[in-house]
Amino acid sequence: MFFLPILFTASIHAEGLPDLGDVSQAAISPREERELGLKIMSEIRSDPSYLDDAEIDGYLTHLGSRLISGSNEARPEQEFEFFALQDPALNAFALPGGFMGFNSGLILAAQSESELAGVMAHEIAHVTQKHLARMIAGQKYSMLTSLASMALAILASRANPQAGQAILVASQAGQIQKQLNFTREHEKEADRIGLNILTGAGLDPRGMADFFERMQRATRFLENGAPSYLRTHPVTFERIADIEGRTQGLPYRQVPDSLDFQLVRAKLRVSIEKPADAVKYFESILREKRYTNETVERYGLVTALLRSREYGRADKELGRLYDSLQPEGAGEALRDHQLGTSIRIQRRMTPSSPMIETLAARVKLAAGHTAEALDIYQAALSIFPQHRALIYDYTEALLSKGSAQEALDFIDRQLQFDPSDVRLYRLQAQSHEALGNLLLQHQALAEVYSRQGNYPAAIEQLQIALKTDDGDFYQMSSVEARLRELRELADSESKKK
Which one of 317, 369, 405, 461 has the minimum C-beta count within 10 Å? Predict the structure, then answer.
């Protein structure tokens, strides 16, 4: 299999698309950069490898926010969006507009949360130091066009390794080779800044060197089969030694992994196995007690049972999962679970992860216990009000039981906190459709497309909305105003081509 070296060195040096300023401002504006990123993301989101998982994205976003908030380098106006791909290759990459992708293989390969954070901190450093902005200054859009090809090559290389490699070589080899020394300097700077970011966030800076060293050992076995410019990839012993030298003087810091880090890894492991194999794997781990955290393995088992459609067993195993969270109250969690009430959550001395509550509600829904599932959602949302998976699942559960107006009211409240959430607009459109509000349905769909950078599709939805003739004067005026705005954006984009 063709192996793409870790793309935290600028997607082969295309990482960290910064909030372009200074001399690079003449090359591309932050708005243009974001629009390019949205276009690339539209291709990635349509690929089967894209993991449309609110919990995995939410975890990556939480970790990224922790790193950014602890950094003196990050600017508040710089946007970041984190996502995951279902891909065993050990890759991470950044795209224009602050989009950062992490392969499932990389997340599973990280042996601690600090190791994963080390990769992410390195990426963030490239963004804050505006490395790519300097690379494309004076080249206008030629480098960015190559970056778009690079993103497509990442996807193409899995289905057709030769085709993906051909795209890589054609789009990047010449430019990367010319600027190799330049990007090596950037790698060292990103390492240095990344270490500061890790330390500021309270994570173990040694995680960066540990992970890079493991990657260096992995890539050396593939060196003969890689293109020449990839053989000069600067994940070198020299770099690793430099990172280790910088951490030697730091006090030892043992940072335990968060429960969510471990749960995300368990969830990813279930997703890469056949359902029956995943069930056997976690059963074996639990039977032989080969674990450091029983809760994580039980979460994996319930997730695997749900995926294999063994709903009765999954429901039964939930009690054992809750018992593992509260060893001092043996049996109490199981009894509360069987009651199926919010008391189960409220009585727990330490609230569990929202991922566990989301899983519990999903199991109840799958087993046909809708009332219990809604009860779990409501109780969990009172503790974890911003957990996206809970929000989405609860809305879908309301829609499935015919409570479209209740779902719509809930969505409207959520959009006040995050008016850019594409999935909420899609759920809003479904709610309006269920209520027969055609104009509002198409208006919501227009917001879905516009926030994905697809202005023609958004305009089409607003045009359909105006033809429905089922809105009042204020609603029609709002649609017309938004239509004019999107047409201006589409015209501006067209002039750039």
Answer: 405
Could you report the per-residue pLDDT of 139-177, keeping only the tens digit for each? 555 555 555 565 565 565 555 555 555 555 445 544 444
For residues 187 and 143, give the distance between their C-alpha atoms in angstroms, rounded to a whole number: 18
Would 258-401 and 403-497 be classified into the same CATH topology? yes
Q: Where are the beta strands (DSSP E) in 216-314?
A: none
Looking up tokens 């295309």, which residue turns up? Answer: 14
What is the CATH code for 258-401? 1.25.40
Amino acid identity, residue 436? G
Q: What ranges do the domains of the chain cover?
A: 22-248, 258-401, 403-497
- The contacts found for 74-81 with CB under 8 angstroms, 24 or more apart, are 74/124, 74/127, 74/128, 75/19, 75/128, 77/19, 77/30, 78/18, 78/19, 78/127, 78/128, 79/34, 80/124, 80/127
Q: Which one-letter DSSP state was computed for residue 251?
A: P
Is there a contact between 322 and 336 (Cβ–Cβ < 8 Å)?
Answer: yes
User: Is 403-497 CATH 1.10.240?
Assistant: no
Element (H, E) at 92: strand 92-95
